[in-house]
Amino acid sequence: MERVQIMPDWPARMTAELASAYMGISKSSFIARYQPIGVKEGANTLWARAQLDAIIAKQFNLKQSPTGRGAEIDTWADL
What we know:
Elements: H1 2-6, E1 13-14, H2 16-23, H3 27-34, E2 39-41, E3 44-48, H4 49-59, E4 63-64, E5 71-72
Helix pairs in contact: 2-3
Protein name: Transcriptional regulator
């Protein structure tokens, strides 16, 4: 997790350790919930940040941003 502190942003692809920190849950809870949607690459299983952002947006009923980088709350829609 030390490398997370020096990165300018979360990586596009994450191991279970990073992805669980991104989602704010323990690694064991993350694996139990999201193992089926991970993609195997060699000995690693990876999750995409965009994939996790979509899960978060759906969970909180947020509109996805046009950039695909997370979700936004549309508070200025009437302008």
